[in-house]
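Reopening: EfeO-type cupredoxin-like domain-containing protein still failing for me.
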Amino acid sequence: MSMYSQKGNVLVVVLVLVIVVAAGGYASYKMFWSNQADDSKEAEHTMENDEIMSDDMMPNESGDGGMMGTDDDDSMMGGGVMDQTKEFMVSGSPFKFSVSEIRVKKGDTVRIVFTNEQGMHDWVVDAFSARTKVLQAGQTETIEFIADKIGTFEYYCSVGNHRQVGMKGNLIVE
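Support: Ran it again with your exact input. Result attached.
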């Protein structure tokens, strides 16, 4: 009887393991597709609201999170031109930036406060040699550069194939 009892115990243990593995796989599957649905809803919301930031919509520096159309720094540069610092809050998540277009004027100092929400990402614009480090989820880095030439310049994430799958946007200098 002990031989049948041992085989029965082994069978029960194997059956329990199969059920646990199947339940874990199912839970992972549901969680993955739930996150994908949330991302697609967010993408639809982004497209509906046309997430484009211009200097009329930039966040102020007072820390209250409000938006304003005035400049952070009104100090004079040579020749009587105002040095205007434009600050933009940009976040990165899987294969997208929160802001698809940034508009500034030639001569503006551009401050990018980049926060990585998920995965590993950076923010790069080659035309101005501006880039953050590759950041882990939850990290933030601030960079500044002067938009000293007019044109449309692509910014992107340089990690893996993120740029190729759409993690990019346009910096427009007028």
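The first helix runs from residue 2 to 49. If you still see a failure, please send the error message rather than a screenshot.
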